[in-house]
């Protein structure tokens, strides 16, 4: 889901730039997209530390465990490279690679079935993905429109697990000096998708006589932003993120490859700073609310989960650095 959100944001942001620039739209699109979303830059590395939290879980609908996660860390690396641009500058093909290393450290755990307390060794997970994306810029009813098709192959250290894809189309509805509104649709090519077709909406507004602007993308973010100090920018707001990885389980109840999908709502502050025109760093901090954590058999819809757990609100800190030679 995270990769789908990034690609959808790519399309939505592209529309905003196309609405403002008629000359060299592809170059302008790439510049603005990479400015907004670090994971779309040529190379991006991020490290995230999540604070301790308590959790309560169910297995096959029955109470399973309650316990504490003492340490939870994520290391992410993203690489993106456009490898073809048409002569008209309206078609671009991009290849992407993603890697994530995620670790959990546990405290005391109570098992409801056996009425026993115990602890668990540190667990770590590797997630890898490769994607190919085609983006085409055009006009419809004399308005800018972008079409995007993306295919993704992902997996773990145990090998390739799934092939997924989606297509999108988005159209500019309103364009003024200070405001841009776009709308579109996302269609999934994934049998595990709960909602195969999703509407898309973006709203960007620059406040009159102010350094502040609002950046709203349904369903991913609501941010208030402004420049702060030389070469810096501050953002306040909320972002919806999803995380996933594969588990190779061999227990009395679960055997085989399963998927963990987690939906998080992060609220807080972000500060970005350009060390050089090609090197950008950022820090984020705030509170993290886990909306859903579910484990399903590989390829199954998330509403057909075998495991579910809830977590208390926790603090988080994230640091990132990107390299963008263009």
Automatic annotation (TrEMBL):
The highest taxon in the source lineage is: Bacteria
Give start-end of the signal peptide.
1-19
Please give the InterPro entries that the UniProt record associates with this protein. Answer: DUF6268
- The residues covered by the DUF6268 domain are 104-324
Keywords, sorted A to Z: Signal
The record's section on Pfam families has: DUF6268
Q: What is this protein called?
A: DUF6268 domain-containing protein
């Amino acid at each position: 889901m995270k990769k789908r959100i990034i690609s959808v944001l790519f399309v939505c942001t592209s529309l905003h730039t196309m609405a403002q620039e008629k000359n060299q739209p592809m170059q302008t699109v790439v510049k603005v997209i990479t400015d907004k979303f670090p994971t779309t830059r040529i190379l991006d590395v991020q490290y995230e530390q999540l604070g301790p939290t308590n959790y309560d879980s169910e297995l096959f609908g029955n109470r399973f465990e309650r316990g504490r996660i003492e340490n939870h860390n994520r290391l992410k690396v993203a690489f993106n490279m456009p490898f073809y641009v048409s002569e008209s500058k309206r078609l671009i093909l991009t290849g992407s690679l993603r890697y994530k290393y995620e670790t959990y450290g546990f405290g005391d755990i109570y098992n409801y079935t056996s009425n026993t307390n115990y602890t668990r060794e540190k667990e770590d997970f590797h997630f890898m993905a490769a994607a190919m994306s085609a983006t085409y810029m055009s006009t419809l009813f004399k308005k800018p429109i972008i079409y995007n098709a993306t295919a993704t192959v992902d997996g773990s250290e145990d090998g390739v697990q799934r092939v997924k894809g989606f297509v999108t189309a988005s159209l500019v509805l309103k364009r003024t000096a200070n405001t841009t509104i776009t709308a579109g649709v996302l269609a999934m090519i994934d049998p595990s998708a709960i909602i195969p077709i999703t509407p898309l909406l973006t709203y960007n507004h620059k406040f009159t006589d102010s350094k502040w602007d609002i950046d709203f993308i349904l369903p991913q973010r609501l941010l208030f932003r402004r420049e702060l100090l030389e070469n810096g920018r501050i953002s306040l707001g909320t972002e919806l993120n999803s995380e996933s990885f594969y588990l190779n389980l061999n227990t009395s109840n679960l055997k085989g490859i399963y998927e963990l999908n987690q939906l998080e709502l992060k609220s807080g502050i972000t500060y970005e700073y350009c060390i050089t025109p090609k090197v950008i760093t950022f820090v984020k901090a705030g509170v993290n609310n886990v909306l859903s954590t579910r484990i399903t058999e590989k390829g199954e819809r998330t509403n057909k989960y075998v495991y579910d757990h809830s977590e208390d609100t926790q603090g988080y800190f994230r640091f990132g650095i990107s390299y963008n030679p263009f």
